[in-house]
Amino acid sequence: MEHVVVVGAGLAGLRSAEALRAAGHTGRLTVVGTEPHPPYNRPPLSKAALTAGVDIAELRFPQRAATGDVHWCLGTSVVAADLGAGRLTLSDAAELDFDGLVVATGLRPRRLTLPGPVPGRHVLRTLDDARALAAELGPGRRLLVVGAGLVGMELASTAVDLGCPVTVSAPEPVPLLRALGPEVGGELARRHADRGGTFLLGRLPVRYLGADRVTGVEFDDGSQVAADVVVEAVGSHPEVEWLAGNRIDLANGVRTDGHMAVLDTDGRRVQGVVAVGDVAGFPYPRFGGGTHRVEHWSLPTLTGRHAARTLLGLEQEPLDLVPTMWTEQAGIRLDGQGLPGLADSWELVQGDWATEFHALGRHGADPVAVLGIGDVRGLIKRGRELGVPSAG
Q1: CA torsion, points 362, 322, 293, 174, in degrees to nearest 10?
Q2: How many domains does one find in the chain?
Q3: DSSP class of residue 221?
């Protein structure tokens, strides 16, 4: 394979480039990335980086010798792809030919389309997002986080530490409901409240208040929350528009098989094209074999290795993963394994909710996730038992 192009210069793109060299690719290797920055670590953006300073030198991943000859095309995006012809069109109208393609474009934040002023409204995904937000946070600065998912809740915790009065709003009755379930979400909400956080739940924002700059938000029940800064943490979109017109399955990111090979709308492999990281949806055999798109930090490395071998035609078994995750907020670290979003019931299996605990999530009778605070070794052991279908 003469020329492989990796589209996306985040962790997934970096790990894919490293894996291609490790698997034996000696041809040209180009990584195209929209941001001007080299690959960097994103999880600290909602935590330590906001308090210690958003510094690319501290956050960037080290360059390995094996990828020293990779051509990094940064500050450029791919706007269209002709997979049949093996050609990409870049944002500067240049064209880039390839024999192998790695889709590693990841996600972009959803934005609220509400009336009202724009200044004072933020999202948090990139290093530049974090820099802009950090400049507005500080003691006494009122923060409203719209959305109570993992990013929103981590950010709320960090802002409390910075001395900000914080309110978190969400349409759900419990924070982190879809990500972690009602029991764990409720317990984390209690810990946030104990540290000074405020919640407005079961409400939808309808408009931003203010003239030249946001001064607050009005909700669907007529209530208003004053704010100096608002962060929209309402989920994300897979970055897949540039792949339109190629008859590939883009219903939820990029659908692949268990080898990370991209599939067309008829379920057939698109030759020479793989997808990695949180833009890729692929089968999870331990969890009923359904296709899932998981947004956890460990996925880029695992999928990048598999995709590289697939692209180079090397033999391997399909991926059979139990995803792992963690979150740091409200003074604790919570670890998890499996697919918590699949669980329709949760059982306390160790400790108690108010201190340290392990909780087992089930879909019907089948275990699909474990979550816990404390005893990480024990939690890992429980995770090894996940995905075993119930008898009968």
Answers
A1: 40
A2: 3
A3: T
